[in-house]
User: What shape does this take?
Amino acid sequence: MSDTVKLSAQIAAVLVACIVVAVMPLYADLFQLMQFTLFASMAVLALSLGFIWGFGGILCFGQTAFFGLGAYAYAVAAINYGDSTPAILCAVIVPALFALALGYFVFYGRISDVYLGVITLTVTLILFNVFNSTAGDEYTIGTARLGGFNGMPAVPTFNMPFDPTAILYPEDSWYVTGGALIAIYVGLRLLLRSRFGRVAIAVRENETRAALLGYDPRVVKLWVFVLGGAIAGMGGALYVNWGAFVGPTIFALSLSAEIIIWICIGGLGTLIGPIVGCFLIQYLVSQIGSQQSFNSNLVLGAILIVFVLLLPQGLVPTLRNLVAAGWYRVSERRRETGHGQSRQMTAGQPVGAE
Amino acid sequence: MTKIPPLLETRNLTMRFGGVLANDGVNFSLGEMELRCLIGPNGAGKSTFFKMLTGQLTPSEGTIRFRDHPIDGHPSHEIARLGIGIKTQIPNVFNGLSVRENIWLAAQRKTTRNAARQIVDEVLERIMLKDLAGAIVGQLSHGQRQWVEIGTVLAAEPELILLDEPAAGMTDEETERTAEIIHEINKTRALIVVEHDMEFIKMIAKTVTVFHQGRIMLEDNVEAVLADSRVRDVYLGKKVAA
Assistant: This one.
């Protein structure tokens, strides 16, 4: 598929997504809308890992560390300021700084990919334990109590920028969450077309060659990692806005593993894939949760096995290849019939000439 | 009068892997615009030598100076920025990307958007892969991937070019073309070429350095080296002695 076809497909996808976000409140009831808001905030998290894993080649087993830090940073700041505007900023900056510090040691210490997975997994476990043991008044930041395993209830949700009295309704929250998801997708797409994005992909492809051409793979990977952390943090803020609550289970390993499943099913190496995988699986799990005959984890496991065996590339790349193959066949046929016509014309010409 | 320092100079360069001495006290010097061939049997330490020059390995002992600037133990990307480019023995390319993207990545680092585009077009012309510019490199033949890698090295416009077995896996015609390109590059830049193909060496070489068991055994002009009995004994025996 040529570059222009790809680009027009991406633009079309963004337009469709914009329309879906815009009209959703007309068709979905409040409960469904809240559910989709949750899915969209999770999709931001999935997108962050899909970016650093699929385009930076960094398999982070603990992307929830940044998601959770973003959520806690938002909650603490929102309670202290009473305004969500600076809190959202905190939710992006705190995990980004944490990713910067962690990434510096990992990438400049030349720690190999497998250990990166182990380290990020461990960091998530540590954060879970740290936040789990913050019960009591001594663990208070400003006026915000961290609350230990009970978490932080009644966190102020999003309000209009710099106007804490104008709290967003669930419909508005849906627009904000869906809009943020689309904006982050578009931002990452633009980044991947820029010089930095192309170099990041080159580093993923072959670190040695990139270094021998004068690019420092450590710096490139570090910035990809930091950006992934910032996006995951934004997802955390959107998540807290959905439930007005954050607890230490946000660092649970099951969620970390689930994001990886979303990406495997949606398609690694794409940006749409993680979003599609996230929405599909979460919708499925919530549907299964509403009945009693199947256990949702069992179904999730079965789906993963089916995908690993039959569609190892994931949904989006498989569909893309199918469309590309179909496109190729159609254009071939068109060319063939085109040739046929021209042959007929040349054959017919002498008759007309006579 | 101050003497012009050599382009590249190594002093007592040594690389140990456990008990194995891959390079043992190598004193090597290369002048500006010089073309040098390195030969030696497998395991003589040529590739290890190249890896130390490009920062892929940190020498156990000794120094490397590039235009009188110490580079031993520096990271690869810094050395590349100083102007040393390398085509490695096994093609080291971006397999999942197109030919054009590979060349562009090499060209764009130190130049503007338009200049990079121009360099890419020139290099594609030079390595004769213009028709395959959009092809994914991983799907090309070994010889074509060699060309892509040579293309990335050319596009980065380094001061010193290291070529590790550039003619391996190429057809006779391509080998000749490689020799031509090497002569062409040598008009403005210095090169060190590692090769096993003696016909190829004869085509391009002036001075040849022979590596044996991690040391420089001999350094002389190409005729003298090929006539030397020790060289024949360690390496060329069957082929040239006849």
The first helix of chain B runs from residue 46 to 53.
